[in-house]
Amino acid sequence: xxxxxxxxxxxxxxxxxxxxxxxxxxxxxxxxxxxxxxxxxxxxxxxxxxxxxxxxxxxxxxxxxxxxxxxxxxxxxxxxxxxxxxxxxxxxxxxxxxxxxxxxxxxxxxxxxxxxxxxxxxxxxxxxxxxxxxxxxxxxxxxxxxxxxxxxxxxxxxxxxxxxxxxxxxxxxxxxxxxxxxxxxxxxxxxxxxxxxxxxxxxxxxxxxxxxxxxxxxxxxxxxxxxxxxxxxxxxxxxxxxxxxxxxxxxxxxxxxxxxxxxxxxxxxxxxxxxxxxxxxxxxxxxxxxxxxxxxxxxxxxxxxxxxxxxxxxxxxxxxxxxxxxxxxxxxxxxxxxxxxxxxxxxxxxxxxxxxxxxxxxxxx
Length: 365
Ligand code: SAM
Ligand code: SF4
Known about the structure:
By secondary structure, the chain is of the alpha/beta class. It has a single domain (55-354), classed as Alpha-Beta Barrel (TIM Barrel). 47% of the residues lie in helices and 12% in strands. The chain has 15 helices and ten strands. The protein has helices at 3-25, 31-38, 43-61, 100-112, 130-143, 157-166, 180-186, 192-204, 222-234, 261-275, 284-289, 293-298, 314-317, 331-344, 359-364, and strands at residues 64-67, 69-74, 117-122, 147-151, 170-172, 208-215, 239-244, 281-282, 304-305, 348-349. The strands form two sheets. A six-stranded parallel beta sheet has the order 2-3-4-5-6-7. Strand 3, helix 5 (130-143) and strand 4 (147-151) form a beta-alpha-beta unit. It is globular. The model has no long low-confidence stretch (mean pLDDT 94).
């Protein structure tokens, strides 16, 4: 190649690298800068982004990985989200409900494994009414020294209050998309603003709150993903989850393409740089699309893993999407396997509940 041309190219590359380095160290990023980072496809640039996210994660969260043990206690749902295999109109799905004592006993077994957060997750199932959920929360708190996260969809404001009083600590309710038009399409004309009002209410009654989106859901643009990250910042979340969309049979989106793994990892990394003091999980959906997904996620800003510890045969029937990672493992082998993976990258499983990293700041304000 002509020497002058080579010099110009080298200078150009150095300029981009310099700019990228500066960008990755900026304290605040604009929407345009977030979009630029989400679009990085050069492998080396992408690795720089992941390395910076890993540094930020280590600085704000340390090197411990917190486990959250999920109990998917019911796959009944009264909603019809277009993307989800549990939607009410999916008549092909075999439905189940775990009995309250079974749920409480499963929570006790999980806590005995040294996992100090229980996530009680289900479809929007009103069979589990205010009192029944409150009873389950209260009994788990009596029997196990754990934090409880609820992930039950949108429920009544009085219910949130009652469950907080019964001992719940956190609520996970993804906003799914920050684009109000797309939100209404996915959720049969429901409003994004209503979901956000639930999240804000949950915060005011004392829950640590988690939210997030799906990457690659039909019609989503990179600009939408940038808005998702900025919305997570505005909501001042304690946990932000970004998982790839996976098409599910017997849903309107069954023939759509799955989300892109690399874009999901870039989203997690940019979110870590923008949000800083927040818990970010390496999701099961990411591990489902990529064998190494969990490790890649933990190396791109994540500090949480949420193993599904629902007992068989229920776990196999919680079919949000097909081929979910690890659905045949028992809790003990699941924890040992995660331990091996986490230690292989020089990190370790935490022995604490892994409460919000922002909690101390909030108490001192
Ligand atoms: N019903 C509760 C709710 O909607 O918040 C909790 C259970 S719901 C199955 C938990 C999450 O699964 C949703 O917030 C959504 O982001 C995710 N999900 C649903 N369908 C999915 C799909 N096809 N691919 C990836 N994630 C999906
Ligand atoms: Fe039901 Fe949640 Fe699935 Fe929507 S995402 S259909 S609310 S389980």
